[in-house]
Each structure stands twice: as structure tokens, then as C-alpha cells.
Give the backbone structure.
Amino acid sequence: MNNDRVKHEPSLTAEAAPPKEMEADMEKLRNVMLAPLALALAAVFAAAAAAQDLKGPTGEEWKNPRIVGAGKEAPRSFFIPYPDEAAALENDKDASARRRCLNGPWKFHWVPKPADVPAGFFKPGFDASGWKEIAVPSNWEFQGYGVPIYLDTDYEWLKAGETPDPPNLPADNNPVGCYKKTFSVPADWKDRDVFLYFGAVKSAFYVWVNGRYAGYSEDAKTPAEWNITRFLKEGDNEVALQVFRWSDGSYLECQDFWRISGIERDVDLLARPRVRIRDFWARADLTADGRNGFLDVSVEVTGRPGGAGGLSTVEITLLDGQGRTVFSAGAPVTTARGKETAIARIARNVTAPRLWTAETPNLYTVVLALKDASGRTLEATSTRVGFRNVEIVDGRLLINGAPVYLKGVNRHEHDPRTAHVVSEESMIRDIRLMKQFNINAVRTCHYPDDPLWYDLCDAYGLYVIDEANIESHGMGDGPESLAHKPEWGPAHLDRTIRMVERDKNHASVIIWSLGNEAGDGLNFEATSAWIHGRDPSRPVQYEPAGTRPHTDIVCPMYARIETIEAYGLKKQTRPLILCEYSHAMGNSNGNLQDYWDVIEKYPNLQGAFIWDWVDQSIETKDPNGRTYYAYGGDFGPPEIPTSRNFCCNGLVNSEREPHPGLWEVKKVYQSIAFRKTETADGRTALEVRNGYAFRGLDGFVIRWELASGETGAPPVAAGEFPNPAIRPGGSAVFPLEMPTVGIVPGREYFLNVRAEYARDEPLIPRGHVAAAGQFPVGLVRPGPAVKAADMRPVTLGQDGTKVTVGGSGFSASFDRTTGMLTSYVFRGKEFVRTGLEPHFWRAPTDNDFGNGFPERHGIWRKAGDHRVLEGFEARAESPSAVRIEARYALTDVPAKYRVTYRVLGTAEIIVSVHFVPEKEGLPEMPRLGMKMTLPREFAHVRWFGRGPHESYADRKTSAFVGTYGASVFETLIPYVSIQEYGNRTDCRWALLADRTGDGLLIAGSPQFDFSALPYTAEDLTQEKRGQKHPQEIPKRDYVCLNLDYGQMGVGGDTSWGAREHPQYRLAAKEYAYSFRLRGMTAADDPAALARE
């Protein structure tokens, strides 16, 4: 089964109205659910009798959507307890005397269905000596248990033809993992309560401690915590888990990622005093003037009945980024007799704090200490906060009063070896790349991430859209959607509440997202209402809500440019921010600049989030021991449902190596813009505009040069403007001292500009290029022309079917029967393995497969091969020039194709192509060009054109004109599934040389596209998407050269229907173009030869 996502074109012109058949249900739901806080409390706490022994699981918990947990503690913010303020300030969780991590090896037993779970396995006396061990955290499918399944929109347990039937699950196909771990409790924890904390377990589980049932939990991406004090004993203790691969909660976890199971995040024991900090909220906001701040800290203290008494105090200390105390204050904890909880609250103004933004991630530290009546610290903890304000005013999203662009990506948690278990090093690597490539925002698609991710986003500066773990994609968005079902209301609310309560203290979280592709209805009206009541300081968004009132941001996915422009043209009360766009599957991300030209044109269009950040491929080995990166369908039998390589949509591969499209993102997302202009007195000048919202450009150096870009040619002029005093949103014009001498005739010249970091910044080294620009200067002067009288003579010889043109140091041969160039020898070296042929096909990209390219353009696949030679002529035009003409009729398409070779005494062959279709209405051509192959030794490529990375008609903004080099056989296919790759646009010349430097020069008239690969287009062509990996395709033992007039763009609006934009297509019409071939030696200058 391969069901790629099917989206609808968003309508942003009116509020989405529910279908008529839903109205009765929705009215009933309103009566039930529009008391969201009451329902939320019921959902979270009704089954959580934490202080009481539970009788045991009924076996129905994981089948009942109304049950979201049993025995669990109420949700709270994530923090680690410490014994004193000094330890809390250090905030090293691994060093805390109040925490013991249970990560590591656990005993593990896997069974294919619940009925096979060993009876009484959770009891201390059970013999598990025959069980194997498994690492915690991990996903058991990648530890050798069961089959990893990747799907996009469907439920993975369904067989072909089955429809979902919530909350039911297959009784005979629902694997269960049984875990056991022995642990001891430190002696100094004797007088404390001990809590068992699970960061994330998928999908649902029971937990026992020393054989006694502690409770049940679902929601695979938020914590579950139990007070297990009453279950503990001296010496060894044992915890046991029964984890279900699928539960009723899985109906809300139908996300576009690997559907895998297990304990995915940390497992901790936490020691807490009897009277303790249960939760706190440190709100750091701004006063009305926007310059001063206030800190409002609410601390919930809990204990046994009467434990808080009225004798405890909470002391709060605020420290700035340099560790200096801003203030310290205390508040008494008073509790009515018989109550277990109380709130201590402290609010203070802070004069002119350094504000937090993604550009300026200034953080303060709040240290909390709970003290008894004698002043002894019972417990301490800390968190970092950022003073910042988020609001929507006049239809614009403002951070600290200023409008911002969210230049975003969607990010799944993924590692190529550990799947959903992601290390701190991997997180930092992601953030480093994002910051260096000008990405300033992340959507946690489609669930709350590991808590550490938010700490890092706070510290390094990324805006976060925090998304609840809710996606019922497989139920659709119609009447059957779980968004409309009252019995699913508690689960929707529980997941929302747990996200908000866990992450509420993070400055980086600026928007709450209710979920993803789960339909829309009263369940989401209720979750939106709850968040607005609980946290009015942040806006709420939800894509399926469209323009309905319970989303503060209109956040469509994959809306076309014309759609968002239509929104921007009208006065709006809400901003539009695309939650997903520019689907980065394979060779994609075309027309990104076109999107941002529109986004930056209208004030209420404020950004977009690319789908997505990282390929979800898995490192594995094929039967021959070769490493490759697997995707859906590569594991398990063929009947396992899969969406194939639809999990590989990343701007980076799973090893975090950038795909070529990421360079385009960096250029388009850059916040410093350049424009070549003139001063009032007519001098060339550079305008620099600061697109940052909060930082000036005094931390950058603007460098410029006037250069031809040719190898070995130094700039003819250069300069710099260090630390320019340009405020946020401002601009300045800098006159440039342009040269009056030193311009070489025939060369093109470009003004190249870049903004470099003037000093090291976190994760960004000094000298890193933040922004760049290139402008043609127009100083081109004609180069020296070679006169016919100066050229050496050539000879024309004809022998049967062979026509040979000879000259000084070279010869070129043609076949009369095919019209093809069959040999070109220069200074004793043969360049032609197979000669030039018409070429109209490209290997389909992932986007091409999604939009019907193979069917629509299939007639061009063999069109160049299937041709009939209708005429051949060879004649001398002059003593130094011979003209060879071959005329063809294409048989797969009604068209004529004429190629003319003019062989000159300079050893140059001018190739001219004339293409004429004979019928209107032919589909566009994937490419228009010629192909040939060269012997293997000519694999060292240099070119003067756009680079260094590959570029296409709709993805070349980031590829500047210059001279670049590559090796044909060392350049790997950058995508996990084979497809078109390696194109270079706007080339003036290209050289394919051997190790000595001798080679074949191709010069444009004036420009051309080319690629030089160890594969033919046919090698890279799949019949269906996601069928072949790169290591399955053997490299040819020769160089495959494509010389093109052009190629259609790669597109990227979606990968399931959207085509490349019309301006980036190649209409089947009449074309005429030419290029030149010429042999050269290492002593020759390819640029000089190309200019002749």
C-alpha cells in the first residue's frame, strides 16, 4: 500500500463551514464540551488516583479513548529537583543527588499480540533469566523485534481494503514489549517521596513496581510520572512495563514518520521531600512601554495533608546572563488545614532587561528554593527565562512589539541509527545548521519534542511552534474525524494540557499548535479555549481550522503563491504563516524565491515552514555488506503497508549533510539584502538593507569585490565596510570605488557582496557568511575575434560511411548512416566514446512522480534515440571550415531535428541545433539538449557558470556565477532514491579534463546547462517512485555528459500533484541554439579559449 498524502487547496476567503450532516453532532458537542477547563481537569485527573493503590489493570485501558491514564501525577513543567540553590544554579541533572537515571540495559521480551504476554511477568519472582536485554531508550523494531513501518496518512495495522474502526485494534496483530529493570534506592532517600518518570513511551503502557500496579499511560510524546514511594522496599526493587505497540491513542498518532515503539526518552527516579515544589510558572514579559520587564512566578507547593502548614517559604532569585543577581525575594506558603497544595507567588518589575528573541537570545536564570520555617532548604530547582512578549496587533505577529518573519522548517526527531532517540549532540548539530543557514523558526512536527530541545532553542535562539501530539490523519477531515467525537474529547485535551504544562516556561515557544491534520470540530474548539484560558500570552494555531475563530494565525499548508497573495491583498485581522510548504522531497525546493518575493510584499504574510528538515532514512547494510540508507518498505515482507521514500523530505539527509536545496534556503532566508544602485552623482554604489527585526549590523563586516570569477583572475577592485551602523529595518548606501583600468576585454564582471560575522557567536564562527549577493556589472567588452584568414586549413575526407575532417593536431569523424560525431581526437587524445545525440528526457524526480510526469512526458523518454536520418551533407565552406549537417525526423513525436557541425581550423566544432515540432499540443519537454559519453579519464570537471552546488531553472538564486570544479566519480547522488541530479545552469564554459589537464572544452553561445555524471538518465530512471537506492546502481565506466539548452524546473510546491511553475517549463515549440567543442591542453586557458 502506497498512499501519499492528498491535500486540498486551502481556501482563505471565508471561514470554513462544517458540513450540514455534522451540525446536529456539533451542537450536541458544544453543550458537552464548551466548559473546557472542567473537562480538561476531568480528563487529566479523574483516573489519576495517585495517592491510592489501584487494583490492577482491567485490560481495557488501551482500548478506551476516555481513559488517558491511571495513577499518574498531574502534568507539570519539566524540571529537576536539587538539594540546594548552588546545585540548582548549576543545573546539571546528571549530578543531582535527587535524580537517578534508569537508562541503560533492561530485560526485554517481545510477543506478537497481547494474549501472548507471559502471565505474571511483572511479579518479582518471575524467572526472566531467558529474556534478552534491550537498550533504554530505544525503538524495539530497530533492535530486532518486529517490523519498522513507515506510513504517511494511513493506520499501519490495517490490511489492504480495511477501513479504520476506532478505537478497535487487531487482537492478533498488536505486538507487546515486556520490560523489567532492577534498581536500588539510595539510603539518603529514605525520608523522601520517590517518583518514577518516563519521558516518552510509545504507544501505551502499564507499569508495576515490585509486582504492585502503579498505573497506565498513553500519549507517546509527553511524560508520565508516578509516586511509587509506597511500593518501594529496602534493597533491590523492580519495575516492570507492558508496552503496547498500538492502543486507542494510536488513532491520534497517525503522523508522517516511522511507526515504531518502545521507551523513547529518559527514565528517571526522582527524590522529592514530603513538602515539595509540584510545579511552577515563571512568566517573563514586558511592561506596556516595551522597555521594562516584569517577572511573575507562581509556585505550586504540595505535601501530605497539613504538610505545608503555613511554615514554608519559597525564595526566588533572578540572575542575569553574567550570573549577577537582579533580585531575590521570598513568599510564604500558606495552606488551609486539610489541603495539600498552595500557591506562592512573587511578581517584580525588572528595569530595562536584555530582551529575548531568536536574534538576541538573552536569558536570565530563576532559582527557586523551598525552605522550612528554620530556613533550611527542602528542595531547589531552576529554569532559564527570557523577557519577551508575543502578540498579534492589526493582523501582524509581533515579538517585543516588532513584526517578524518566521523563516522556518518542520523538524521530526530522527537519527539514522537510533530512530526516534535523538542525542544532545544531534540536536546541537541541527541548531548549528539551522542558524548557519538562516533558519530562525522550527515547528515540532507533529508532537512535543524532548525537553532538551527547548532548552537549546532558548539558549541559541530559535522560535518554536510547539505542537500537540494529535494527528488522526487516517480518519480524514469529514464527519468521521475524531475531532467531532465526544468520547475522544478527553484524549485531545489531555495531550494539549500536558504539552502546555510541560513547556510553558520556555521563551522559545511563541505559538501553541493544537495538532496536525486531525480534522476540525468541537474537540479543537475546546483545546483552543483551554489554552487561551490557561496561557493568554501566546497565540494558538491550527491548520485545519482555516479562518475559523479558534486559530489566531491562519496557517495553511501548501497554499499556492496566488492564494497567499490574495490573502495579503486584503486587510486582515490575523497573520498568515504557512505551516508547511516547499516539500523538500528529493531534488526539490524550486521557486522558493518566488514565494518569498510575495511573502515580503505584504505585511500580514509573515513566514512559512518548509517540509521538512531531515530525511527519515535509516542506516543499514544490503546483502553485499554495503551501507545504504533505508526508507519505508525496506524492512519486512512486501505485504507490510508503506509510503516508501515519502519519509525522506529533508533539507539535510539523515546524517545532517545538506542537500543542494538547503543552499537555496540560506540565500532566500537571509536577513541582509543587497542592491546595486547609484549615488546622486552617478557613481556605482551598494545599498545594504538590514532585514533583522532586533539586531543591528554592527556585528558584521560587509565585503565586496569586482571580479570576473575566472580561475586565477584576481578581483580588479575590492573593499569592506566593517561594523556598519544600520539599525533593524534600516538601510544605508555605500559608494564603491570602481576601477578605470584592469578590465580584460571579453570577460564578464560581477559585483560580489557578502556579509560575514565579525566575531564568534554561539554555533557560528567568525567569518561565516550570513548573506551574499551577486550583480552583473556590465563591463563586458568584446574579446579578440579569430579571423578566417588566420585559421589553419582543414581537410575533408570521405571513405564509405565515414567522413573525416582533419586539421593541425586534431581530427573529427562522422558516420554518414547515423549523422553522428563518432570521433574527436586532439593532440592524440580521443574524447568521444559515443557521439552527440538528441536528448529530451530526464530521470523523474520525486516531485515528477507525484505530478504524473512519467505518463505526461513519457513520449520524450526515447524520442532522441528513436530518430530517422533524412539527410546528411558534408561540404567545405572555406579552406579552414567544413560544414556537416544531419537532418532527422523523430518517430516518437512528430518533430524535425537538425544538427549542424562547423569544424574549424582552430580545432573547434560549432554545434548548432534546430528543433521544430510538427504538431501543436505536445507536452512540454523535460529537457532540450544533447548527450554524449567520454572515456573515463576525462572525469575532472571545471566550469564557469552557476555553482558550486547543482542548480535548476527554478532553484538557482543561491548559485553564483564563478569557476568551480568537481570529480565525476567522486560526486555522490545526494538523494536516497535515485533521480535527476547534478545539473549546472547558466554555464559559459565547461571543461572535462584528464589528470594531466588536457581535456574537452565546451563553450556556450552564450550559455548552456550541463551535467557530467557516472550514470545515464536511463540508469537513474525508476518506473515507480522510491524503488531503487543509489548503491543499487553501478557506476558506468565512462563519463555521461549532458549539454542542454535547458531543463524544466524541479518544482516543490508539493510532491503529490503540483507541477513546476509555468515559467520554468520547456514548451514543445521551435528552438535554435548552439555551443562549441574544442580540445585543449593543460597549458591552455579555458576562459580565454571560450571567449574567442
About this structure: The CA atoms of residues 653 and 871 lie 50 Å apart. Residues 1-9, 13-51, 305-309 have pLDDT under 50 and may be disordered. The domain at 24-272 is CATH 2.60.120.260 (Jelly Rolls). Residues 489-503 form the longest helix (15 residues).
